[in-house]
Design a protein that fits this description.
This protein is of the alpha/beta class. It has 2 domains: 95 residues, Oxidized Rhodanese, domain 1 (3-Layer(aba) Sandwich); 143 residues, Phosphatidylethanolamine-binding Protein, CATH 3.90.280.10. The chain contains 6 helices and 14 strands. A 6-stranded mixed beta sheet has the order 7-14-13-9-10-12, with helices on one face. Strands 1-5-4-2-3 form a 5-stranded parallel beta sheet. Strands 6-8-11 form a 3-stranded antiparallel beta sheet, with no helix packed on it.
Length: 335
């Protein structure tokens, strides 16, 4: 009996121990699950905040970049305005400074305009004395000169520069008030290009076309402004079916030259590739009708660093901001 009782006691003790161990394990597991449940929302919250913050930072950065790009676009160059827009600009901005950069100021000018000819260096001398924060309206009697004048202000760091499209002629054609100017001190000469072979808007002799000898006509140049480092000649046909057709480009012409002789390239000058695909002169060759041929001369304050593979567009890009004056002669050819 004693043995049986002893076994029973041992069995009870063993069962009790097993129960205690099992109960302890269950309690431990439940505590661990409670801890995990409490920690998971925190982790999820942190992750959500990080993910939410990242797009906000990207949007802010993108907005800053766009604002910077817009500001750069607004201040990267001068703005062309029509005569009507220029009139409105003048009426709404009493402090606007109107710059006439033409040597032909005596031919007439916009009311209140001040004259600083670009051809004799007057504009260059005056720019350091101007207020770079003011607003400026630039115009001329020549489109090339007004563009050059406006660009000079931009290059000097001016932010508010406008250019009158069509220049003084556009203003007059719009019927707006003008003032009579006074002769420019020093009587600045006007750049001109003429030919003994034909006059303005007259027919180019067949000798200088593809129907005959296909050689360049003599061109006489006068009124070259002081400070000219080189001359550029471009001959093109704006009436060609596919758009403007370039017939001849020559640059780095000595400003001391008074003529480009017949069938001749000035010494030291460079000829560029035309729309015929090769350097050199190509005479008028209209497929039909009568076309206009523009013989354009530019006086530059620099020499051009271009080789003979350069095109008219290369030249036009290179001369931006360096044109002291320009002139043209128009000849006709065709049926």
């Amino acid at each position: 009996m004693t043995t049986i009782r002893t076994l029973r006691v041992l069995l009870v003790i063993l069962v009790t121990i097993c129960f205690i161990i099992t109960f302890s394990f269950i309690v431990s597991c439940r505590k661990a699950e409670t801890v995990e449940v409490k920690e998971d929302p925190v982790e999820t919250k942190e992750t959500t905040e990080e993910e939410a913050e990242a797009p906000v930072e990207e949007v802010e950065e993108d907005g800053e970049d766009e604002a910077t790009e817009e500001m750069e676009e607004e201040t990267s160059g001068y703005m062309d305005v029509t005569a009507a827009e220029a009139k409105e600009l003048i009426e709404n901005n009493p402090d606007l400074i109107i710059l006439d950069v033409s040597p032909r100021y005596d031919d007439g000018h916009l009311p209140g305009a001040v004259n600083y000819p670009i051809v004799d260096g007057s504009l260059d001398d005056a720019i350091p004395t101007f207020d770079s924060e003011a607003k400026y309206l630039v115009y001329c009697h020549s489109d090339t000169s007004s563009k050059s004048g406006a660009q000079k202000l931009i290059d000097a760091g001016f932010m508010n520069v406008y250019r009158l499209e069509g220049n003084y002629v556009a203003w007059v054609d719009a019927g707006y008030e003008v003032e009579t100017g006074q002769a420019v001190e020093g009587d600045v000469a006007e750049l001109k290009i003429v030919s003994p072979a034909f006059s303005e808007n007259e027919k180019v002799p067949v000798k200088f076309t593809c129907d005959a000898d296909n050689i360049n006509p003599q061109l006489d140049i006068s009124g070259i402004p002081q400070g000219t480092a080189s001359l550029v000649l471009i001959i093109d046909d704006p009436d060609a079916p596919g758009g403007t057709w370039v017939h001849w480009t020559v640059w780095n012409i000595d400003p001391a030259a008074t003529s480009i002789l017949e069938n001749n390239v000035p010494s030291g000058a460079v000829e560029g590739v035309t729309d015929f695909g090769v350097p050199g002169y190509g005479g008028p060759c209209p497929p039909s009708g009568t076309h206009r041929y523009f013989f354009k001369i530019f006086a530059l304050d620099i020499m051009l660093d271009l080789d003979s593979s350069s095109t008219a567009s290369d030249i036009e890009s290179a001369i931006q901001g360096h044109v002291l004056d320009s002139a043209e002669l128009i000849g006709l050819y065709g049926e």
